[in-house]
């Protein structure tokens, strides 16, 4: 009788498998593989090698605290000649003396997470069991049978593998971008993402059921949408705040990456990190989803409606001076969410592909502050009855905006103007730092027959809200850019589209504002009581907005909301126009000195000019970039930066990864905040 087969050592081939599974940047200390794709391990036996027909080998894989075969969290499978199509499999790849290479493979529908791997050997009636380590299983966008399969390789590289990107902000009239370090392959990020799954309320309520659903990206997306915020008194990652009081935390404008946020959450015992706003919530969610292998991207919707009563109309109330009344229903200057790519086998055919997930806490869904996944196709087609939260997202991009002017006697006059929300829906282009407009994915062209069909399906009539071409009109224009520290002009362009002369009152009012629609103190005003407009004529009226008027109340969002009310005396009709003006911050200039090469010292020269008439105090630069700086580098200035003066410093760093990288910089001070800059750096591989 043959002597027992004794396992001496083993090699999980972390580096080789990492390269083949595109997880090498997560490090070689742990085995990280993607589901449905084979990975190789090598077994070294003592005394004699494996003999087919004499020795039997089998593996056990388990995930979660209570693994059960029927839940898909445990599997026992023997080494065979051919891979198993529907379940876990193990096949001998190569034998070299006492060494045996085995190819293991999970089904493309396996639960993701951390697994333990045990080998069972038996010769005759004798058998032994040996735990040979752990591995982490991720979704696989490269496998045609995975529910997150994405066909295009460039898109897979952008939406799964890219660790840096751009997020769009500003206004629909002046779109800006800020750099973001997603850093999903940085040290410890994967373990933090798995910890996030293990602290979600569904896991704490029923561990077996939660783990058994981790094969489904729809389930994972919904859990993550809830766990990025902390509004349900769970152990969520971020606390949101929109009131410009961030003294007990970090201003949302100061973040330039997700890694620091996730590490803080873990370091301080899963306490929410202060503070986030929509783009921060979305960016952290994008990091988590990409880390787990689900293709994801951050999307910005301009003039985004927050419809609280579901009637698909946003009513805004103003007094006769143009002051907006605060309301739960708002038009956000912009709003960010993420889209994640997945199949929707829980729905009828046709709704696979991009799904909206919104982790910013706005409204509850099934009793929890989360939103989605909502198929983008369903939003475009007006299929509001499908899962999840489609009416809310449909309103964000389609609701009508109606202005009501409240007169001194309490009566209300509906403006002849209405305007659609959901403009310039944007995301970063694949492989380039350009903006891609994806509005057409969410809505048919305005005024098209197909658009009318969608609204009929969504059960509402928009014709009563359409602006009449006849009568008086007003628009707000900006002649040139508005720079922080400077005075600038805005203009009310008023027109009479009738055949008779009209006498009107024009009220222009400017207030500092936040991106979520909240307004602050007045910083400009003009009231013209008698404006005569000839038939078919147009006039332009300027309003100068002075720096000394907005300097104290400008929020970190750098926005000024300008409202124009044009009242016709004869009919009492009122035309309303509103525009958000983005106040531009100075440019951060970044020069890279030296030859960019992996593991060779580089120097970045970073500079900024103070454009204000006041000195800047408590100045801090934060520099980071995946593959470049190995975490954040912080430069605190000892002296104030005087008005119109330039501050310049140099920073040494040693790039540790080759390829295209982004060096990102954030500047904070007492009067100038959230100033961002970045530079692309191509790092050559280290010579072999």
Automatic annotation (TrEMBL):
Keyword Cytoplasm found: yes
Primary localisation category: membrane
Named cofactor requirement(s): Ca(2+)
Active-site annotation: 278, 335, 358
Subcellular location: Cell membrane; Chromosome; Cytoplasm, Cytosol; Mitochondrion
Cofactor: how and how many bound: Binds 1 Ca(2+) ion per subunit.
The protein's name in its UniProt record: Protein-glutamine gamma-glutamyltransferase 2
């Amino acid at each position: 009788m043959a002597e027992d087969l004794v396992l001496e050592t083993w090699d999980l081939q972390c580096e080789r498998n990492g390269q083949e599974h595109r997880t090498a940047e997560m490090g070689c200390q742990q085995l990280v593989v993607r589901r449905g794709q084979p990975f190789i391990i090598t077994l070294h036996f003592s005394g004699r090698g494996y003999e087919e027909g004499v020795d039997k080998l089998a593996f056990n894989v388990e995930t979660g605290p209570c693994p059960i075969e029927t839940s898909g969290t445990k599997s026992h499978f023997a080494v065979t000649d051919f891979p198993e199509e529907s379940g876990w499999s193990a096949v001998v790849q190569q034998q070299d003396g006492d060494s045996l290479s085995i190819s293991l493979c999970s089904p493309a529908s396996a639960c993701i997470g951390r697994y333990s791997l045990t080998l069972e050997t038996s010769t005759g009636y004798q058998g032994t069991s040996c735990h040979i380590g752990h591995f982490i299983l991720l979704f696989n966008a490269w496998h045609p049978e995975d529910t997150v399969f994405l066909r295009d390789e460039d898109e897979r590289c952008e939406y799964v593998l890219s660790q840096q990107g751009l997020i769009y902000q500003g206004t629909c009239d002046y779109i800006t971008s800020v750099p973001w370090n997603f850093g999903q392959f940085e040290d410890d990020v994967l373990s933090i993402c798995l910890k996030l799954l293990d602290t979600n309320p569904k896991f704490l309520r029923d561990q077996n059921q939660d783990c058994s659903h981790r094969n489904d990206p729809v389930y994972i997306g919904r859990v993550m949408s809830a766990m990025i915020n902390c509004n349900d008194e769970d152990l969520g990652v971020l606390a949101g705040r929109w009131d410009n009081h961030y003294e007990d935390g970090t201003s949302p404008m100061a973040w330039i990456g997700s890694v620091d946020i996730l590490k803080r959450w873990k370091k301080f015992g899963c306490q929410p990190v202060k503070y986030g706003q929509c783009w921060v919530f979305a960016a952290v969610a994008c990091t988590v989803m990409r880390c787990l292998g689900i293709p994801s991207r951050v999307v910005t919707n301009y003039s985004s409606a927050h419809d609280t009563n579901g009637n698909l109309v946003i009513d805004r109330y103003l007094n006769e001076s143009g002051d907006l009344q605060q309301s739960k229903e708002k038009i956000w200057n912009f709003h960010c969410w993420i889209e994640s790519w997945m199949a929707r086998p829980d729905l009828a055919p046709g709704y696979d592909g991009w799904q909206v997930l919104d982790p910013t806490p706005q409204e509850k869904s099934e009793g929890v502050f989360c939103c989605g996944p909502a198929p983008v196709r369903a939003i475009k087609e007006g299929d509001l009855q499908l899962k999840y939260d489609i009416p809310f997202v449909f309103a964000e991009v389609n609701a009508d905006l109606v202005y009501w002017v409240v007169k001194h006697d309490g009566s209300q006059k509906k403006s002849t103007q209405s305007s659609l929300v959901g403009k310039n829906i944007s995301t970063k282009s694949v492989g380039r730092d350009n903006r891609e407009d994806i509005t057409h994915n969410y809505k048919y062209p305005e005024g098209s027959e197909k658009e009318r069909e969608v609204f009929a399906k969504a059960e509402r009539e928009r014709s009563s809200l359409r602006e009449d071409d006849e009568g008086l009109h007003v628009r707000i224009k900006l002649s040139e850019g508005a720079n922080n520290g400077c005075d600038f002009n805005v203009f009310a362009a008023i027109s009479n589209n009738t055949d008779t002369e009209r006498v009107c009152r024009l009220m222009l009012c400017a207030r500092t504002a936040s991106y979520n629609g909240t307004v602050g103190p007045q910083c400009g005003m003009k009231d013209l009581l008698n404006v005569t407009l000839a038939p078919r004529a147009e006039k332009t009226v300027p309003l100068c907005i002075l720096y000394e008027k907005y300097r104290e109340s400008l929020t970190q969002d750098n926005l000024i909301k300008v409202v124009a009310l044009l009242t016709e005396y004869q009919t009492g009709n009122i035309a309303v126009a509103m525009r958000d003006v983005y106040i531009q911050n100075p440019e951060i200039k970044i020069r890279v000195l030296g030859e960019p090469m992996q593991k060779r010292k580089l120097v970045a020269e970073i500079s900024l000019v103070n454009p204000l008439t006041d000195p800047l105090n408590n100045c801090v630069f934060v520099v980071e970039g995946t593959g470049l700086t190995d975490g954040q580098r912080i430069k605190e200035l000892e002296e104030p930066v005087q008005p119109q003066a330039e501050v310049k410093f140099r920073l040494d760093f040693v790039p540790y990864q080759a390829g295209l990288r982004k060096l990102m910089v954030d500047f904070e001070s007492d009067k100038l905040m959230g100033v961002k800059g970045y530079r692309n750096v191509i790092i050559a591989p280290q010579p072999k």
